[in-house]
Amino acid sequence: MHARLGRGLTAGVLAGLLATAPLASYAGDAGTTRWSDQAPAARALVGAPTDLHTTVTPGAPAIAVSWDPPITGLPLVLGYQVLLDGQVVATVPLVTTSYTITADAGALQLGRTYDIAVRGTLLLTTGAEAHTRQTLYVAPVTTVQRANPDNPLAGREWGVYTGRLDQAYNGWSKLGAAKKDQLALFATIEKALYFGRWMSDDEVAGKAQAYIAGAQAGDPDKLVLMTLFRMFPWEGEARIDQRLPTAAEQASYRRFVTNLAGAIGANRVAIVVQPDGYFVRKAFEAWVDKVGRTKALTPARMLAWTVRTLAAQPRTTVYLDMGSEDWARGDYRSVAKYLKLSGVAAARGFSLNVSHKNYLEREIAFAAKVSDTLASMGIEGKHAVLETSDNGHPFHGSEINPPGASPYIQPGEVPPCTTRNQTTPCTALGVPPTTDVDNPAWGLSPDLAATAARYVDAYLWVSRPWLPDQGQGGTTFSPAYAKRLLSTWPFSPYFTGTS
Question: Is 84 helix (H, G, I), strand (E, B) or coil?
Fold first, then answer.
């Protein structure tokens, strides 16, 4: 009797089928067994694997591949081959339906988009291939901290947008191949894209939808990070402490935010609202004696409405920005006061250090004090996100703007470091985007690490040190800045997560 191989298929029948199916020619290369494309008759024997899925591995330059068995062709598969751009990088047994492609298994390069295929194997023949494409980006480590188990940003994959809406990607994509390989980090790491007045009230919805779709890449469970910077007047030439928004400007602002909220809808989004939010204090102090408390709080009331509108979306997490520890000069009570006036009660929490480059340790301790102060006001459980894109060589505001000094130097305009050991204030990349806020890689003391795990949801990249002249509206990616930032970065996006 013939040994049975599955659903009535015998070894003799299988041998007969294989005898009539023209096999592909063998082509060996450098330690890899590869078969050229199968003839149609051979391909018909084994169908393509189903539900092929790829994603980038958090904390590693690697691509995870998973699939389900074929549902067409012969009912037997003896194993699978995984292909990267047409080359077999792995052969795995039947019981395995997943594989991680690492730099050792394939020549992976950050920023490249790869064709990934999987096919079944049956003795000396291979089946039809399932194909997909995957860009290698920097996937953030999003481990859940035991001290912060309900963190809405943790325990899930973050979508990383790689497209023309991102200024870094836009500039990077125009470089030559060698430069693109060298500076790919800036195009492929998680950054919270800004949505602001340079987009019209009517076009913001379309741009937001395109950004969300690009970041999620077909997976609606991926978290997308955004930044809302729409208040006008605010800072720069049109300062909110020099004039308050007109009725028409307030109406335009509401249209913009309403359209943005509609575009977000049920997507999973985290959004930082209005960087440099501490300007609400400047506005109040400049206007309260002239127009009274209610009108002087117009910017704060607009932000409070914004927080409620965005937080009303079913899967949106809101963080209200309120400056930084060095801007507030350590006055955590004032920051808590204006967070309350600006509607933080309806938000998950608050954001600190955007556009500043303060010491991470100081911002962590400050965030804890702000949260505790809010709790004493009856607003409990508020967590922080901290900006870390540009504080790898931190400096306090007083170090570049001592009392009485003139002119004022904007922290965001301090150029990149020239060496890792530079002693004067300069800009360096900081901790990569992550929810793993107490990881030993960040060099925090045990007490500060414990404080971060309890009070901080994530470190985010919201500022953009690779864009010179941010304070003057600079939007152009600088390869020279990017090269210096990369060469002096004290951290790495590749690390093992802890909980």
Answer: strand
Q: For residue 113, count CB atoms less than 10 angstroms from its CB and return exposed for 0-12, middle for 13-18, buried for 19 or more.
A: exposed
pLDDT of the residue at 406: 85
Q: Taking Cα atoms as reference points, which of 327, 411, 406 lies closest to residue 362?
A: 327
Question: Does the pLDDT of residue 435 top 50, yes or no?
Answer: yes
Q: How far apart are the C-alpha atoms of 1 and 15, rounded to whole Å?
A: 15
- Phi, psi of 444, deg, nearest 5: -80, 150
Are 119 and 219 part of one and the same domain? Answer: no
**What does the pLDDT read at residue 236?**
84
* Statement: residue 13 has pLDDT above 50: no
Long-range CB pairs of 420-424, under 8 A, 24+ apart, other chains included: 420/488, 420/490, 422/393, 422/488
Residue with tokens 């894109």, as numbered in its chain: 389
Residue 441 burial (C-beta neighbours within 10 Å; 0-12, 13-18, 19+) = middle
Q: Round to whole Å and give the CA distance between 315 and 275.
A: 22
Quick one: pLDDT at residue 20? 42
Residue 418 sits in the same domain as residue 371: yes
The predicted model scores a pTM of 0.90
Q: With cut-offs at 50, 70 and 90, classify the pLDDT of residue 3.
A: very low
* 335 token code pair: 């920051």
Does residue 155 carry a pLDDT above 90? Answer: yes
Instruction: Tokens for 499, please give them.
Output: 């909980």
CATH number of the domain bearing residue 247? 3.20.20.40
Domain range for residue 362?
167-487
> d(Cα 105, Cα 39) in Å, to the nearest integer?
27
Q: Are the C-beta atoms of residues 319 and 348 closer than 8 Å to each other?
A: yes
Count of the separate structural domains present in the chain: 2
Dihedral angle at the C-alpha atoms of 242, 248, 253, 256, nearest 10 degrees? -150
Looking at the domain assignment, is residue 494 inside a domain? no
Sign of the Cα pseudo-torsion (361, 142, 304, 249, in order)? positive
